[in-house]
## 1
Amino acid sequence: MKRSLVVVALCMATLSALPCAMAQKLPITMTDDTVLATVQKRANRPPRLPTADINAAMISAQRWISVARTQHDPRAYGYAQQALAPWWTRDDAPADLLRLRAAIKQADHHFEAALKDLSLSKARSPDTAQTHLDLAILLSTMARYGEARASCQSLAKLSRGLIPTLCTAHLDGIEGRAAPARAQLLADLNQSHAVDAATRSWASTLVAELSERIGDHTQAHASYTQALRLNPEDLYARIAFADFLLDAQQPNAVVALFRFEPDALPDAALLRLAIATRQLNATNASALAEMVRNRLAASAQRGESPHSREQALAALKLDDAPQRATSLALKNWQTQKEPFDALLLLACARAAGDAPAIAIANQWLQTTQFQHPTLTATRAIAPRRL
Amino acid sequence: MMRALFLLCALASMAISMNARAHKASDSYLTLDLSPTQITGHWDVALRDLDAAIAIDQNDDGAITFGEMKAEAARIRAYAFTHFSISHMGKNCLITPGAQSPISHTDGFYSRITFSADCAIDVTAPIVVGYTLLTGIDPQHRAILALTANGATVTRVLDPNLGTQSININDANATPQSLISFAKEGLHHISIGLDHILFVVLIVIGTVRVHGNANRAALKSLIAAVTAFTVAHSITLGLAVFGVVNFSPRWTETLIAATVTLTAIDVIVPFMMGPRWAMTFAFGLVHGLGLATGMSAANLTPGALLTALFGFNIGVELGQLAIASAVWLLMAWLTRSRTSVIPVARRIAMPIAVLSLVWVAERASDQKWLPL
C-alpha cells in the first residue's frame, strides 16, 4: 500500500513540476495616444475610387498587387480584385487584365482558375513574354512540367537575356539537372550586367537552390546571402535561406535572419523563427509557437485555406504531430507541388510511418528525378513511430 | 514562386517591408447568442478595414490611435450597422449597438462593438443574417460567425458578396452527432495505440494472476483497477486538452512505454505492493497525456471542447472494455485445465516486457528500430 502511494505521489509531483502553459493576456493600459494600428498615409495608397476606366483600373490593381507582395499584406489582393470588379468574371477581358486577375487568383491558391485566365491571356496576346513566364512558373507549381517547358521555350523566342535562362533553369533544377542548370545560369549571370536587382536576386536565389540540391553548401550559403543583399525585401529568398539553415542545423543563423518584431513577420517567416527558437530551447520558443498556432487557426477559420503548407510544417516541427502533419501535407500536395512541398510531405509521412503517403512523395521524386542531399541521407532510416 | 510575376510589374511602393501585423486576409468576428426573447452578441471589425472603408485615421499620419478610434465611434457604428442585419421568421430584428472597445486579434487591433436585438426566437426557424461589410472595397472580406443556442455553437463563414445567409438554429444543437464522432475518434485512437492496448491486457492478466479467474474478488479488483485507470487518464487528458499541462510527446511516449514495462515485470515477478487500482491510477495519469495527441481539439469553443473530451473518453472506454473482456475470456480459456495461472501470465507478460523496453529506449533516444 505504502509503495503504491509513493508511485502516485511521484507521478503527481512530476506532473505539477511540468511547465504549465496557461493562456494569459496581460492587461494593457491605454491612453488616447496609444497606437492601435499602422496604415498607409492616404497619399501613398493606390486609388480606390470605383472606375469604369479600364486602364485606370488596371493601374490601380497592379499597384495593389505590388503592395500585397512588398508588404506581405493579403488584404491588398482584395483591393486589387475590387479594382477589377467590373471585369472579374468576364472572359472577354483584355490580355493584360487577365494576367492581373490570374496573379490575384494564384495568390489565393486558386491555381486552376489562374491557369484558365493565363491561357486566355496567352490566346489573346501570344507575344507577351510576361504571360509565358507566369504560365511556366504556375504550371511548374502544378507539377505540369512538359507544358511549363513549352512556355519557357515560347518565352525564349520573345525575350533574350537572363529571364529565359531562369525559366529553364528553374525546371531543370526540379527535373534532376541541377548541376548543368547552375553552370548555364552562372555563365549567363556573368554576361548580363544590365539586369535589375530584383532579377539578379532571383537568379542568386536559384543558384543557391541548385547548389543546395547538388550538396554544394558553401555556394548555396554565399548565393542566398548575395540574393538578400541585392533585394532585402525578397521574402521568398529569406524563407528559402532559413529552410536551408534549418536543414544545416544552424538555428542561430535563422534567428539572425528574422530580427524583426515577431508581430510584423509574415506567417511563413514567423514559423521558421519559431522552429529555430524551439531547436535552440530559447526562452521565447513556446510563446512564438503559440503565436504561430493562433495565426494558423485564425486563417483556417476562413475555411478553404492556402495555408496547408505552413500548417503541415507547424504540426511536424512545432507540435510533434506527424499524423496530423501528414494529412495536412497531403492536402497541400493536392494543389501545390513545388519541391519544398514534396520534401515536406516525405518528411511528415516518414515521421508518421505512413506508407501510402511516402509512396506519393516517392512517386514524384522518381518521376522528376529530383535531387537533394537530405534524400540520400534519410533514405536509410525506417519510418518513425510517434 | 511569386517572383516571376513580380518582375515586370512596376515596383510601386517599396515602403516598409515587414509591415506591422498585416499578414492576414480580412475577416471580422461576429458572435450571436440566442435566448428565447433576444439576441445578444459582439462584432470585432479590424481597424485597418474600418480605415479602408471610412478613413478613421483622422490626421492621416499612418497611425490609428485609441483616441481616434473613440472619436470615430459614431461613424464606425453607423457604417458597420448599415452593413449588418438580422431577421427571423420574416421579421427584421432591430439591432441596438452598445459599447465599443479595442480588442487584439492575431493581426492587430479590432474595434469590438457589442449589440443586442429584440427578437422572439423560434428554434425551428432559421436566423437570416444580412452581411455586406466592405462590399465595394474588399471582395475577399469574410465574417466568421459563431452562433450559440442552447449552449451549442455553430460556426459559419459569411461571404458579403452573397448578401444574406440563412442559418439553421438546429445546426447548433448537433451535440449528439459530434459526441459520436469524437467517440469514434477515441475508439480509433485506442485501436491503433498498441501501448495502450498492451497496458489494458496487462491489467487483466495481472488481476487474474493474483485472484485467479472466475471469481467475485477477481472481478471486483479488475473493475477497481480499470476504473482507476479511466479516472486518472481522463484527468490528465482534460488537463492536456485545455492546455493546463503541456510537455513533449517524446517524454510522454517514453513514460507510457515505461508503464507497460513496469506492469509487465510486475506480472512476472510481483514487486508493486498495495491495491492494483493505485498503480493503475498512477500510470493512467501518464497515459492520459498520450491520449491527448490523438484528439483533434483545434478551433473548439470551451463548451464544444467539453463535449469532444467526453465523447473521446467514451470511445476510449468502449475500446478498453472490449479489450479487457476479450483478454478475460481468453485467460479463462487458456487456464481452463490448469491449477495455476502464473505460468500462462508470465509467458504473455515476458514478450510484452521486452517489446515495451525497446520502446522505452527508442522513444527516449528518438530512434526507431522496430516496425511496431
## 2
Amino acid sequence: MSRKKPLIELIDVTKIYDDEAVVKNVNLTIYQNEFITLLGPSGCGKTTILRMIAGFIKPDTGQIVINGKIFNDLPPYARPIHTVFQRYALFPHLNVIDNVAFGLNNRSYESLEDFFSKEKIDAEVQLLSKEKEIKRKKAINSLIYKEANKALSLVKLEGYAKRKVDQLSGGQQQRVALARALINRPQILLLDEPLAALDLKLRQNMQYELKEMQEKLGITFVFVTHDQEEAMTMSDRIVVMKEGLIQQVGSPKSIYNEPFNRYVANFIGETNILKGTYVKKDVVNFLGVDFKCMGYEFPDNEVVDVVIRPEDFDVVSLEEAPLVGKVIFSLFKGVHNEYEVLVNDQVLLVHTYETYEMNQPIGLAIDPYEIHMMRIQDE
Amino acid sequence: MNKEFKVLALPYKIWLGIFVFVPIIAMALIGISNLNSTVTIADLRITLSHFSILYQRSVLIAFRNSLTFAFATTLICFVLGYFVSYEIKRSRVKNKFVILTIVILPMWSNLILRIESLGNIMSENNILKSIIGFNLFGNISGTWMAVLFGLVFTYLPFMILSIYTALEKIDPALEEAALDLGLTPMMKFWKVVFPLSFKGVVTGSIMVFLPALTGFAVPKILSRGQIILIGNIIENKFIYTNYNHGALLSMIILIFIFGSILLITKFDKEGETLL
C-alpha cells in the first residue's frame, strides 16, 4: 500500500524532566498522509512527544527520524513541520492576513522562488506590470498575499483579512492558526489539543472540518488530545498513552473493540471488565457461566480479563438467557436506555433500546464475537 | 457601596484641587500677567511681554542642553536597558523579583545623596581613590560626561522596569510559534519580541525623558554649575523671585509633559505598561 510510507519514526525516545521520565522508550512510526492521534490523560507525555517532533525540546535518548534523516538536533525553524498551538499563539501585533502570511513573509527570496516556482512568479510579473514596471520581489509579495487569501478561504474566513486577531472568537482564532500553518504547505502538521478551548458544538464542527481538510490536503496530522471521543471521530490511528508509555496503537475500531489491557479498555468508552477463565479453545467462563467465544488463543484454564461493551449485550427472554440479572439503576439517554444490572453479585453496565423497570429481572446474552479477552497485567 | 468609596476618595480630590489644579492655573496666569510684589490688584493686566525671555540666548541654550541631554540619556538608557531586561527575562533564575529588586535598589536611597556621592567620586580627590589607588572616573566632575553619566545612572531603572514588564507579558508560545513558522532566533527577536515589547520602550523612554528634561539637581551637582539646563534656569528664576519668567518656562515644560502623556496613551491604550 502506497500510504504505508513511514514519515516520522521515533526510536527508543526518552525524555527526562527533573529525574522523572515523562516519555519512556517510545517507539512509534507515523506514516505519510495519516491522521494519527496521541491520546491520554494530562501528564501522560503526549504533548512532550509532540514538542520533540516540533523541535522545541530534545529527546534525552533515542532518535527522531523524519524522511529517513535524524532530526534530533535540528532547530524547529529548519523542520518541514508546523504546529497549531493549544492557545493558538496568534501574533497580537499583526492583523489576520499578516498572521497568515507570517511564515512566507519571513522566508528568504531564494526559498520563495522555489515555493512559488519561477513560472508562476513570471506570470505574476506579467500580470502586474500592465500597470507599471514591477520587480520580482513585488510580484512575490503579491503572490504571498494571494496565497494567504486562499488559505483564509480554505478555513472559511474570507473577509476577515484586515481584522485584528483579538476581535475574533475562539473558533475563528483557531482557524487563523490553522491557515497560518497550512499556508507553508508543511509535510506534517502537529495539533496540540487545538479544540480544547472551544465549546461542544463548535468542537464537533471543527472535528469534521479538520478531518476533511486533512484528507483534501494530504498532510500528515499528528493530533494530541485527552478526549477519547475526539480521537475516535477523526483518527486513522490512535496511540493510547499512559505515564510516558504507549499502551496500544491501532485504528479507532480495533482499540475500541480489542483493547490491549484494562487501562485502554477503561479509557476508551464505557465498558465491563470481568474476571474469567479461558476453559479451553473457544470456551470462556465468567459470571459462573460457560460462553462460546472466538478468535483468542490462551493456554487452557488461564485466568483472563473479559471485556464486554455495554451495547454488546443482547436482551433476550428469561428462559433463553444464559445470564439473568436484576435492574438496579436506569437512566434514559435519549437514543438508548442505560441500565446497571446485578448478575451474580456483579454489576454490569448494559445499553439497550428495550425499556425495563427498576428491580425487574432481565435476561442477557452475548454473541461469541462480542467477547473480548485480555491477558491480565499487573497495574 | 459606591457612595462610600466616593466619600473616601474625596479628601484626595480636594487635595488634588488645592495643590495641583489651582497652582497650575495660578502659574499659567502669573506667566501671562504683570503680577509681582509691586503691582496692586487694580493694576493687574494680561501681558505677553514675558515671552521675550524665550529669545534670550541663555534660555535657548538651556533648552537646547536639556533636549540634548534628555535625548542622549533616553537613547543610552534604551540601549543599555533593553538588553538587561531581555537577559533578566530569559534568565533561568526562579526568583526574577530578586534581580529586579537589585535594579531598583538605588532608587530607594535619596537622589541628592546619591548624586552628591557620585559627584564626589568623580572629582580629583575622593575616598574611592584613597582606597583603590587610582581615580575610577578620571576627573570628569563638572563636564558634560559627568552629567550624562549621572542622568543615565539615575533613570536607567525606570527603563529596565518598563521594558521588563512588557517583555514578561509576551506569551512564550508566540516565540515558539515564530520558530515553528521558520524564523531563526534573530528574526524571531526582530519580528515578534521587539514589536511586542515596543510599548514598554515607549513608556520607559518617556519615564526617562521627562525627568531628564526637567530635572535640575543632577546637572547642578555634577556639572558644578558649568552646564545649565532649563530646570536650572527655572530654579534660578524662582530663587531670584522672578515669578513671571519662572512660571512661563514651567508652563512650557508642562506642555512637553502633556505631549508625552498623549504619546503614551496613543501607544498604550490600556495604560498597562505605566507603572
